[in-house]
Amino acid sequence: MDTAARLQAPESLPASWYGDPALWQRERRAIYGASWNLIARADQLAEPGSYVAHDVAGWPVFVLRGRDGALRAFHNVCRHRAAAMVPDGEGRCDVLRCRYHGWLYDHEGRLRKTPDFGAEIDLDAFGLIPVRVETWRGFAFVCLDDATPPLATWLGSIDERAKRYPLERMKFHQALTIDLGVNWKTYGDNYAEGYHVPTIHPDLNRAIRMATYEVECAVEEGVQVHRAAAAGGGTSGLWLWKFPGLFFNIYDWGMSLVRLEPLDQGRSQLVYWYLFTDDSPETRSRRDEMMRWSLTIVDEDKQICREVQRNLDAGVYATGRLSPVMETGVIQFQDWVRAKLA
Ligand code: FES
Ligand SMILES: [Fe+2]
Fold first, then answer.
1. Confidence of residue 227 (pLDDT cuts 50, 70, 90)
2. Cα–Cα dist 242/161, whole Å
3. Residues in contact with 124: Cβ distance below 8 Å, sequence separation at least 6, in sequence order
4. Which ligand is nearest to the CA of 201?
5. What does the DSSP 8-state code read for residue 321?
6. In angstroms, rounded to a whole number, what is the distance separating the alpha carbons of residues 181 and 34?
7. Which of 206, 263, 320, 334 is 20 to 30 A distant from 96 in Cα terms?
């Protein structure tokens, strides 16, 4: 690299941004709270009364298929004394009865009964607090901010790019949650570049032709596209990232749909959904092999991210420089973070 290019290597985010509780409180509102968050698959919400409850950046929420067939989402909090309405995970409920003192809500979130309460209250004023919910190609998303554009607009070119893949026909195989133990941006930085592939991911490095690895930046705000050609007929990939934490890793055999979920300033997790185009028993071993392959890569990333986080927390490293050639995706990711917090 010549000197001029080196001089343009921008500064990375300060280390203090990767462990500051106050900054995390701003991020959860300005970034995750203002985004659409994937919460459920169509197969989990097929029946009336089926629900999925999940934490979205510190807000417990649930999405429910009502008796009338409509999908609704609510904050998972009873208006009496704040107990959870449904347990985390997926399940069925014929009625929404709070398990703490038995307040009863209907599937539209209206408060119906307050057993033995002993006083009149305005039932209409104490309904469950609604959350926006929309679906895209068989997946349900929730959003906590009224100002955020509709889901289709928010997804931007992801819709067009994923069009040629049969997402609806892919069969759900398995979900895995991976505890990263790092600030969510430490993982974001890592995902945003292929610079580390030859050094950290020997198998992946053999499977793809690194010379073809490219990160398409400046597509539009919040979308990054990574792609690489397969080496010698192996698995080729299209990797779509919707900021802040939704990844579509699409292959010829199916996809992993991944959520990067921050838990607080120092912890985050990855939730992997593996979906396969062919779920016949004959291809079972191939599916297991694909998952092993993918989990090896995740594990390699987790180890290096933990090392990085330990040093970011240690207080000797303040900031570094990003390569204008190899880390354009990181530069863009960090610019998005700065812009959302400005
Ligand atoms: S907290 Fe729900 S009924 Fe009391
Ligand atoms: Fe990696």
1. confident
2. 12
3. 110, 111
4. 2
5. B
6. 24
7. 263
Query: Strands of 71-75's sheet, edge to edge?
Result: 36-41, 139-143, 130-136, 71-75, 59-65, 50-56, 89-92
- Return d(Cα 41, Cα 138) in angstroms, integer: 6
Is 244 within 8 Å of 32 (Cβ atoms)? yes
Closest CA to 101 of 116, 87, 91: 116
- How far apart are alpha carbons 165 and 41 in whole angstroms? 17
Q: Which protein residues touch ligand 1 with a CB less than 6 Å away?
A: 78, 80-81, 83, 98, 100-103
Secondary structure of residue 23 in the 3-state scheme: helix
- Contacts with 159 (C-beta within 8 Å, 6 or more apart), sequence order: 136, 152
Ligand 1 atom closest to the Cα of residue 82 is: 1
36-147: CATH topology is: Rieske Iron-sulfur Protein (2.102.10)
How big is the CA angle at 81 (ends 267 and 95), to the nearest 5 degrees? 95
Separation between Cα atoms, residue 117 and residue 134, nearest integer Å: 36
At 133 the pLDDT is 98
pLDDT category, 2, cuts 50, 70, 90? low
CB 338 within 8 A of CB 210: no
* Mutate which of 75, 76, 78 for ligand 1 pocket (most atoms within 8 A of beta carbon): 78
Nearest to 256 by CA among 200, 210, 191, 335: 191
Q: Which residues of 237-268 are buried (b: 16+ CB within 10 A; e: fewer)?
A: bbbbbbbbbbbbbbbebbbbbbbbbbbebbeb
- 3-19+163-341 placed in CATH 3.40.50.1820: no
Burial class from Cβ neighbours inside 10 Å (0-12, 13-18, 19+) for residue 320 reads: exposed
Predicted confidence (pLDDT) at residue 236 exceeds the cutoff of 80: no
Give the residue whose CA is nearest to atom 4 of ligand 1.
101
**Sequence ranges of the domains in the chain:** 3-19+163-341, 36-147
Domains 3-19+163-341 and 36-147 share a fold: no
Q: In the 8-state DSSP scheme, what is residue 168?
A: G
| Residue nearest to ligand 1 atom 1, measured at CA | 81
